[in-house]
């Protein structure tokens, strides 16, 4: 081999090694946002969408959050779709760069499920800075029976970027009915603005947030292989879903096409969903003082 050919070989090898170690290189493992910065910024506005029932689907669910980790496995059947929950900003406060890139792609379609009551006592503390500044007190609640399973979807064929998809496709939340103890929360006002590109042209909505009706907690579906770096964040994602009231709608209903993102449900057909005004708002909370890690 000539000296020139040898030099070219070494140059090519050096280039390959450099690409392999560069941040964001094609061979890099999919990443995930840090737990507390992501969880504390995820607010989901939930719209009523009855009228569709998926093909018969049975799922086995395992709790991911440490506080509920000792609860047994559950087998549930997907029932009628009840809600579509989409990411919003509150009072014009947009999640910071690097976090909003993930938050804006979290769309969850929620289906009726049934199960036994767990009667698990919890104290819920708000994590979002906007709500914390309002001085909303902790809530003492009892976790009752599961009512919904919320799973990741895309709207109108707009898929997240690959590095975001590898994270959001593993967000599954099981929503339990709550018994709220003590004095009910006094309704407080918020202004909600859409973050997802598909709904970016929808006007902001003024809502009054009432008592939490459900707690949605992270679960994994059997056969869903969640990467460790993704699991490290999604296991902390708890949302308290509270009823909201709004003024009469000034815009008409919007029809959306939903596509399932989670690998376990990717065989399900696309769905049409019509939304008008939100009926609930999912706000991030911590359970029993267990705050998600910052990193």
Automatic annotation (TrEMBL):
- Record key words, sorted: Signal
The keyword Signal belongs to this UniProt entry's keyword annotation: yes
Query: Which superkingdom is the protein from?
Result: Bacteria
Q: Where is the signal peptide?
A: 1-28
Q: Name it.
A: Uncharacterized protein
